[in-house]
Amino acid sequence: MWTNIIDNAIDAMGGKGELRVRTWRDDDSVVVEIADNGPGISFEIQPHIFEPFFTTKKVGEGTGLGLDNRPADCEEAQGKY
Length: 81
Hints:
Order of helices and strands: HEEH
Oligomer: single chain
Structural class: alpha+beta
Strand order of the largest sheet: 1-2
Shape: globular
Strand content: 15-25%
Distance between the termini: 11 Å
Number of helices: 2
């Protein structure tokens, strides 16, 4: 789950910027925070990022793992997205 998010952030930053991954314990949970100072997701694309098979990448680029199943993966692990 995190690998895809990190790969997308690195691609979007185009070799420039900073990517931060922080983890900490919060009572009985572990919190993972992934942040970057890249250009962000355009307003036009934002409504679609959790749709199955949505991508902004060309065929053959990326992992093929979209964000559509990330909330379910988190919930299956008893986490929050």
